[in-house]
Amino acid sequence: MRASHLRPIAGRSHGAGLPELDAALRARLAEVSAAGWTIFERFEAEVRDRRFHPFVAADYDAVLAALIAQRGTGLRFLEWGSASGVITIMADLLGYDASGIELDESLVQTARDLATRFHSGARFVAGSFLPTGYAFSQGDSDSRTGWVGSGPSGYLQLGRALDDFDVVFGYPWGGGEPMMLDLMRCYGRADALLLLYGVDHGVTAYRGRDRTGS
Ligand SMILES: C[S@@+](CC[C@H](N)C(=O)[O-])C[C@H]1O[C@@H](n2cnc3c(N)ncnc32)[C@H](O)[C@@H]1O
Questions:
Q1: Of 37, 53, 162, 201, which is most buried, counting CB atoms within 10 Å of its CB?
Q2: What is d(CA 112, CA 104) in angstroms, rounded to the nearest whole number?
Q3: pTM for the whole thing?
């Protein structure tokens, strides 16, 4: 089923006022986040200071608050461009059935190592979050996809299609929102939730609507 449009739903999250969590879980999530920042700082020094790389870390506290607000037993979570894996691992620790797709194989290994370190069952595959055959087009408007790279689609390896997921997360820095919204409209489930992080707005949640747009 294709969603005819997506609309933002109430409640942007900037990370303030995390809902109550079990203290042990909260401590574990904080450790994952701290480990993620250490990885990102090293990545900046060793990679991003030398050449362009699209891995820019989101505000993990803001994303965590959104994941907590939306969690439900067994919800399937997918991160588009999961990089070092922090967000997918946090989702797994919160009880989501969590997977990440990342184009850069060395980052996929980093994410798997981080998952092992935190005894997380999060799954990571190397590949593209763009389904095979997908091409972004806005008619005559700007249809650039910016930093989004191309490669074999990762969904086959996951054994799941985009419409198998209940919650999808992406960080479309540099103007990639139209493509991510279009991707979800074309391939996401109509009732799935899309969480997009932006530096200015924190996390915005979009819910797909059915074909009638009702
Ligand atoms: C902006 S970073 C976001 C990292 C992480 N999701 C976060 O929010 O902290 C985007 C990531 O997407 C990856 N990427 C770029 N194009 C991709 C594609 N077509 N499929 C999968 N990953 C991709 C990049 O290598 C990079 O790690």
A1: 162
A2: 13
A3: 0.91
The domain locations on the chain are 21-208
Residue of 61, 82, 109, 136 to test ligand 1 pocket, by largest number of atoms within 8 Å of CB? 82
**Rounded CA separation 212/214 (Å):** 5
Phi, psi of 26 (to 5 degrees): -60, -40
DSSP element (H, E) containing 178: helix 177-187
CA gap 97, 102 in Å, rounded: 17
Q: How far, in Å, is the centroid of ligand 1 from the Cα of 108?
A: 11
Query: In CATH, what is the architecture of 21-208?
Result: 3-Layer(aba) Sandwich (3.40)
Longest Cα–Cα distance of the chain, Å, equals: 52
Beta partners for residue 45, in sequence order: none
d(CA 182, ligand 1 centre) in Å: 17
Give the pLDDT confidence of 59-113 residue by residue, as tens digits: 999 999 999 999 988 899 999 999 999 999 999 999 999 999 999 999 999 999 9
Which helix (H) or strand (E) segment holds residue 94: the answer is none
Token pair for residue 144? 């650039």
Look up residue 128 and give its two tokens: 């593209």
Atom of ligand 1 nearest to the CA of 57: 9
Q: Which two tokens stand for residue 54?
A: 């699209």
The answer to whether the CB of 214 falls within 8 A of the CB of 10 is no
